[in-house]
Structure formats: structure tokens, C-alpha cells
Design goal:
Blueprint (H helix, E strand, L loop, with lengths): L1 H20 L4 H8 L3 H8 L7 H11 L3 H5 L3 H7 L8 H11 L3 H14 L7
Helix pairs in contact: 1-6
């Protein structure tokens, strides 16, 4: 049982990592690969482990090896140790937008967020 939990956790961490570095949301993966949102959510939250055919589909989607999803490796381990537990679809959308902005536009976006959510930012 513990070994299965470790497999689920490893896949969850790796899947979050590849979503993040590819600027993909869970919703996009679901739409692109015809997976249900609950299924992908269960994988992301380490509740379930996908069948090998689904792992292969994910690997092909990200252009990686199956082992990149199923084994502990450097990049994803660093991601796990970065204290990022979850990256929501909304944060990924904001991140994608920021990557297409120049420095001035990024500053404007941050200033707007700080004004709109002043109680959420450290003072």
C-alpha cells in the first residue's frame, strides 16, 4: 500500500512539474487528451494512479518518456522541494500572460493585483 502511495505521489509531483514548465492547465490536458477533469484531478492530487496507456498518452503529450512521469528525477524533485504544493489553473493562466509581457506590462499587472487584493499581499 505504501509503495502505491509513493507511486501516486511521484506521478503527481512529476505531472505538476510538466504542466508548469509547459504552461499547461489541467483543463487544457483534459480537453486535448479527452480525459475527464475528475480523472486528472485525482492524478494531480495523488488519489489515483493512471493506467500505462494513459501515462504513455501524457508522456507523448509532453514529449517526454513515461519514466519522466513515473520515476523520481531531478527537475520534478526540485519542483517538489520548492514548497509549491499546487499550481491552480488560474495561476498558470496569469503566468502564461506574464511571459508575453515586457517589464513595464508585468509591473502594471502586479500593481493592479496589489490594488485589487491589497489584503492578500505582505505589507
Amino acid at each position: 500500500m505504501e509503495q502505491m502511495n509513493n507511486l501516486k505521489e511521484t506521478l503527481s509531483t512529476n505531472l505538476k512539474y510538466y504542466l508548469n514548465i509547459n504552461n499547461k492547465t489541467q483543463s487544457e490536458v483534459c480537453e486535448d487528451l479527452s480525459f475527464t477533469t475528475s480523472t486528472v484531478s485525482d492524478w494531480i492530487n495523488a488519489k489515483k494512479y493512471p493506467r500505462m496507456d494513459k501515462i504513455q498518452m501524457l508522456a507523448d503529450y509532453f514529449g517526454i518518456l513515461k519514466s519522466d512521469l513515473t520515476e523520481v528525477k531531478g527537475g520534478a524533485s526540485s519542483y517538489l522541494n520548492s514548497n509549491i504544493d499546487e499550481t491552480s489553473d488560474e495561476i498558470l493562466v496569469i503566468n502564461r500572460a506574464a511571459k508575453n509581457m515586457n517589464a513595464e506590462e508585468k509591473k502594471k499587472m502586479l500593481d493592479l493585483l496589489k490594488v485589487a487584493f491589497s489584503d492578500k499581499f505582505d505589507k
